[in-house]
Amino acid sequence: MPSTGADPIPLRVAVGVVRDERGRVLVARRALDRHQGGRWEFPGGKVEVDESVSTALRRELTEELGITVDECRPLIRIAHDYGDRQVVLEVRTVDRWSGEAVGLEGQPLDWRLPHELDPADFPAANRGIITALRLPGHYVISADCHEPAAWLAMLDRVLAGGERLIQFRVRLQGEDRRVLADEALARCRAVGARLLINGDVALARALAADGVHLTGRELSRLRERPLPPDQWVAASCHDPQAIRQAASLGVDFAVLSPVAATASHPGAQPLGWAAFNGWAAEAPFPVYALGGMTPDDRAMACRQGGQGVAGISGFWA
Ligand SMILES: Nc1nc2c([nH]c(=O)n2[C@H]2C[C@H](O)[C@@H](COP(=O)(O)OP(=O)(O)OP(=O)(O)O)O2)c(=O)[nH]1
Ligand SMILES: [Mg+2]
């Protein structure tokens, strides 16, 4: 019987990001005659009926690489439609494993640092995995600026504390705003941190900042991604429709809020972790939990399918 298009039941795939002590990740090249053949992948394979994701991952990594997974934890879940096949990639980070990885099916292997991974070498669904590997577990949103010297001193303290992803969220206007953003960018660059400009694509472009953070309103109005792939585009989402809009624009990551009650938005109804988990699972990109979060909530956010936690109070401090 002729095919009538893609199989409506998505294929569940257990995918392992195996890391070594230097932070490099293991990639393998898919054989030319297979689906997405010739592209690089993270090792793994189909989850069999009655198998859990972690059981499938252990089996696949033993079959394909000859290693034993000692422990794995969720990184991201990505649903993707290739047209000829729908997949759901259940991606786990594997930091604890034993044995020596070899390409037991004849597949070439390579160890690469996250910034050495080019999404163009991988199947399209892998873009969100590569972004997740490059992003930290905290996304620090700045407080507003009343006095530039004090604001910059706080930025220095936040950077000295090890934070590496900062959102410039400051209500200053005109030249004052541009000058402060430019100085903030220089201080971030000096320590290898990234700075995203809230709600101002033009300023992000003018300063060649690391990216822009779209407000919910901007996200709903845009029809195309406002910056090229070498600058991040992040967005604020409050519901599944915003996540779909962000996906259609091709944003790199999002914050989903308010997960818990927060003093900055006292009237807003908290989502709770169950809704966060369900909505983040629909996003093909990493999602940070925002709203009433502290650094202590990071592990919970990761267990719930998030990239980590975002916030002002508790982070910009
Ligand atoms: N393993 C893996 N599969 C991926 C990645 N990205 C991606 O889109 N896929 C897709 C390609 C395939 O359609 C599907 C994996 O199926 P597969 O056929 O390779 O699974 P398998 O290892 O069980 O292979 P086989 O036993 O059927 O030979 O997921 C990735 O990074 N790793
Ligand atoms: Mg496989």
TrEMBL record:
GO molecular function: hydrolase activity
Keywords: DNA damage, DNA repair, DNA replication, Hydrolase, Magnesium, Metal-binding, Mutator protein
Class of enzymatic activity (EC top level): hydrolase
Catalytic activity: 8-oxo-dGTP + H2O = 8-oxo-dGMP + diphosphate + H(+); 8-oxo-GTP + H2O = 8-oxo-GMP + diphosphate + H(+)
EC assignment: 3.6.1.55
Stretches assigned to the Nudix hydrolase domain: 10-130
PROSITE patterns in UniProt: NUDIX (PS51462), NUDIX_BOX (PS00893)
Superkingdom, natural source: Bacteria
Xref: Pfam families: NUDIX_4 (PF14815), TMP-TENI (PF02581)
Gene3D superfamilies to which the protein is assigned, alphabetical: Aldolase class I, Nucleoside Triphosphate Pyrophosphohydrolase
Cofactor: Mg(2+)
SUPFAM superfamilies in UniProt: Nudix (SSF55811), Thiamin phosphate synthase (SSF51391)
Annotated InterPro entries: Aldolase_TIM, Mutator_MutT, MutT-like, MutY_C, Nudix_hydrolase, NUDIX_hydrolase-like_dom_sf, NUDIX_hydrolase_CS, NUDIX_hydrolase_dom
Family of the protein in this entry: Belongs to the Nudix hydrolase family.
Annotated protein name in UniProt: 8-oxo-dGTP diphosphatase
Protein species of origin: Spiribacter insolitus
